[in-house]
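Exercise 7. Predict the joint structure of the components listed below.
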Amino acid sequence: MNVAATTVDAAPTEKTLLQKIGRMARRQPLGAVSGIMILIMVLVALLADIVAPHDPLKMNFIDQLAAPSATYLLGTDELGRDILSRIIYGSRTALFIGFVSAFIGATLGLVLGVTSAYLGGWFDLIFQRIVDIFMAFPLIIMALAIVSVFGSGVGNVIIAITIPFIPKCARVVRSSALALREIPYIDAARACGYSHVRIVLVHMVPNVMAPYLIMVTSFVGQAILLEASLSYLGLGVQEPTAAWGLMLRGGAEQFFESAPWVAIFPGLAITLAVFAFNLFGDSLRDALDPKLRSS
Amino acid sequence: MLGLRALTAATVGAAAVLAAGFAAADGHGDKPKYGGHFTYVIPSKAPPSLDAHRETTYGVIHPVRPYYSTLLRVNPADPSSDVYVCDLCLGDVPEPTNGGKTYTFKLKSGVKFHDGTPLTSADVKASFDKIIFPPEGVSSARKSFYMMVDSVTTPDASTVVFNLKYASSAFIPALAAPYNFIYSKAKLDADIHWYEKNILGSGPFILDEYQSGAQITGTKNPNYYLKGLPYLDRITGVFANKESIQVQALRGNRASAQFRGFPPKTRDDLVRALGDKATVQETDWNCVLLATPNHSRKPFDDVRVRRALTLALDRWGGSEYLSKIAIVKTVGGIVYPKSKLAATKEELMQLDGYKADLEASRARARELLKEAGIDLSKTYILNNRAVDQPYKVVGVWLLDQWRQIGLNFEQQVKPTGPFYASLREKGDFDVSIDFNCQSIVNPPIDTSKYLSSDINPANYSRVVDRKMDELYNDMLLEADPAKQRVKMRTYEKYVLHDQVTQMITLWWFRTTVHRSHFKGWKISPSHYLGQALDTVWLDPDADK
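Solution:
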């Protein structure tokens, strides 16, 4: 009789997703806060048409540079456009560019990094030297060079941000994959006659997902900052598209003294978004690190 | 011998009168002071070349003009007038002979280039031949201004004769263009491209050093032919493309002037910060921003679509609102609004896009788009230049205006090089921002911008319309000012209303702010003028 009861007690309890999130929130309170901030940002971006109080492109010249008020909660810019609405729509631009370039950059880096580790030899040697060349350039310089060649616009900004991410992720993932390569199950897969592509994609890639996820998260914050930087320099998305970096140039520089809200609120939006993604990435790293997890 | 003495005496006398006139003309009535090192900001990147004959940008005039002479110049004492004075020529601007077809210029004697070689009529002829009749492979930006010139001859070393094909009131203003630097014939003969990378003139300052895109420094020319000038010992032009840097340079007294102009808000900030240590000068500007439809692309080859574009623009409202934030202000037609040849407000209001009832205009625009079968879900391309003032500000305004009749445009902002490549070679735009900025106010020549593209390649709309060209020529050859004004209206109506080959947005408004210790400089309707810097001086007392 006691056997059955003992069996039930010994079986591990399957936790629900909510319970898992609750446990992570308790262990990583900053991560939870940043997660909530990211969630709000994503929701605001998705529901911009509903939550934005005004048309972000509409110019109301009678209300040029209006201070924050009940009508315009964060004031208006020099063309009379509502800053809050532009920040809300700007989150779409920031998150779209951030997620797309981080995902593509990290994924390509993942595949190339694992392939490099798996194949080794000349391929690894040459590929790593190429990675060295790319990593010798600061992120912004590389992005500037690329956007200078391809031109401005959302598509080209994504390319400009994605390319520098590839070698960064490839280098990190390769170091994890090098250890994997020596584990006998890879030899077993080879012995079974599986193709290189299958071994890399099916047997190795899933085992380096932890560093990959951490890289993706940190890349999103970096991509948002890069997009804002490129737009601020006039090389990113162009007016009248609502974009945070773009909101910081032109009128924001000219009217900063008399209408500081034109620069402060877009700057705050960039700061909070980057802060949230970086914090979330750190928490994710801590959560996925077996050493930290066991302690 | 007696003749030479008399000539020398006349030169010195004329120069003294000119110098006294310049000094007396200073708004403050101060006595000019000698000496000092004047630093000014050049709001530009390095110019593509140093040869003003081939360039169109103020980026070459502001740094380089003080090192050169010209045959004629706008009167620096009254640069807003259409009065021209001799620079290298002697006495007054000559009256034409031979029924208005011959102009004979006597040159000042003893003028030397900075390398010590004498400047003669051969140098003047070589320079104008390069401008008017450039050999193959040599670019001359304003060649079309001199369509009336048949030949340039030099009967002797101090005489230059311009022989015209027909009498033209546009000739003398064209000759006074500040780009017409007089170069050394010897240098041009050795290498006609020499002046693209080198500076050697006979102007008030001698070049010390040029660091491309950084700064240019010169020292007073002790042998300058206008005796008593220049007042300054030394000048330095510092390249600073970013407005915030220009403003900080003025506020911090690291520079005394910026000659292009500032937007109204910057003017107010500088005045607030500097008080009476800042001097503001303002005037209408002989510069206009255009919206140029690409006639080689559908649907902008359809006059109904072009008419819809111009009908959508609230120019009168835009003037009021944009003038608060940008260097544009005046509503006008194709002629500089302060010119006698310009349209009055009543005349303008007869044209589509200028009428009082904006809503009716926009309703008509929507009808025209419907008639033309325009797909309103499509996004068109507006080509724009990556310069905030006023290009990007006006570009955003245009997008908003066209959105109100249902047309969606995406703005493609490009640096100057790629922007011009799109305008000139690629033609990869539906509508482009374009500009018509001229130095001397010379409407018959300035409006050549709107001639068919095969006649004037500076018309980037790719339009070919012989009726329009005939209307222009008819106006150009008209000698009677009143009749010329009427013909200008006909030409203007054809360009802006009948065919809408191009669209005028707003004319620029020039506001300069300089430190009050910088004296003797007067604003003009062009940022290309008043850059010789021989009649300006510094008054350190003004800072006390």
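Discussion. The first strand of chain B starts at residue 37 and ends at 42.
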